[in-house]
Design goal:
homodimer; 255 residues; alpha+beta; CofE-like fold; five-stranded mixed β-sheet; 6 helices
Chain lengths: 255, 255
């Protein structure tokens, strides 16, 4: 029988605060759940807790709004301070409509509002703050992998996921914005087509598929569950991070 | 502990031929695997076997190529007969470049080459044929659900998945092109933002997230495994099919 895939939500993670050692928190939660990491396991961690541990908050009161943000905020019908932060986090604005600004994030993802999160943040209404993406999610994933290896003796693969909207389809899906220890694309051996030509290589984006699966599990918990242990994924090892998931600008047909 | 998600690839499905009763084949394979369906289970079935059972083959020798297909084939550097079939299956051509034609399929999906598949088909090189998507994957999913309920006494939820490329990101991911018995989007309760405004509702595309997870499992098997049993998904019931996943043309920013 082919191996099955298991996704186990990790209970018992405390509220994460800036400066927290996420690897220690995860290791403790694993221990409480009587779960021991195994070779080949993948740990999928929600961007939100990585950002919180890294203290990626921005206080809106401290934002200095420029002219571009003022104009864009009017078009998007958003708070100009938030729009300034979105611009600061982005390379390019691709589309604008009321309520949404689609950008290329400075890390290369195309998504809404530079991934800046205002929900589920313990924020003072008198002094609101928002949560930015980690500075370098691949580096965050590598650190978490290394720290967990030091704590547990097992080098798991790590994916940091976030929920992105998509072109053409409604709803959000989990995608991998950072990874460590794995190859995010599975390279299929080139097949021949009916005419003997080698087909264009099909590459399943396995890191995104796992990120999506974990997102589903994270969303099931009443209060959300930011860490999911995945067993049986059989992902190939790799050191390249998540960059392979990003299509080069010149190759993209939908800019 | 929050319930875990299990994805169990179904071994023992024979090669599917036109006219086969897919529900009977699945029920038999479940029996061989000593697996009994349970309430809340989701069965994810690869488009390819649904199309095969429905006999959705087209012989290239029978295709009459029109002027539009001839011109488009030159731009796309594809077989004009295949391009004619792509046009026949599509409402609109969105983008063309050598090797790929991005269309809106007659069922509303935006994807490459109208999902027409030339790989893994037992085809005579002297008389090549290709495999089209099911005529109505939601109807296929509903039939499979009803037949399995009749055979097993359990009404599982059914997703028919296919692998789609995406804007902005490399690699393909599994998506739901048909579903039965489930709500493809999970409607989150509207949260309030920092300023007391209700946030735009976030709707995870849970059917796509599960389709992606199943696609990962399907691709792990050496010869592929077209049916995956999912346990623990906790998807809400619903009768609307997959249409809710398709963004209305006027709402889409990337046409």
């Amino acid at each position: 029988m082919t191996a099955q895939l298991q996704l186990i939500p990790l209970d018992g993670l405390p509220r994460v605060e800036p400066g927290d050692d996420l690897a220690r928190l995860v290791a403790a939660a694993l221990g409480e759940g009587a779960l021991a990491l195994e070779e080949g396991d993948v740990l999928v961690v929600a961007q939100k807790v990585v950002s919180k541990a890294e203290g990626r908050y921005a206080r809106l009161a401290e934002v200095r709004v420029g002219d571009e943000a003022t104009a864009l905020a009017a078009r998007a019908e958003k708070d100009p301070r938030l729009v300034q932060l979105i611009l600061d986090e982005s390379r390019e604005v691709l589309r604008v409509r009321p309520g949404v600004i689609i950008v290329e994030h400075r890390n290369g993802y195309v998504h809404a509002n530079a991934g800046i999160d205002r929900s589920n943040i313990d924020s003072d209404p008198e002094d609101p703050r928002v949560l930015l993406l980690p500075v370098d999610p691949d580096a965050s994933a590598r650190r978490l992998r290394a720290s967990l290896a030091a704590l547990t003796g097992v080098s798991v693969q790590v994916i940091i996921n976030d929920s992105f909207g998509r072109a053409w389809r409604n709803g959000t899906v989990g995608v991998a914005i950072g990874c460590a220890g794995l190859e995010p694309l599975r390279n299929q051996v080139g097949e021949q087509d009916l005419f003997g030509n080698v087909l264009e290589v099909t590459e399943p984006a396995v890191a995104d598929e796992l990120a999506a699966a974990a997102s589903l599990v994270m969303g099931q918990a009443a209060e959300g569950c930011p860490v999911v242990l995945v067993r049986g994924a059989q992902l190939a090892g790799g050191a390249g991070g998540s960059a392979a998931l990003l299509r080069e600008r010149g190759q993209d047909l939908f800019r």
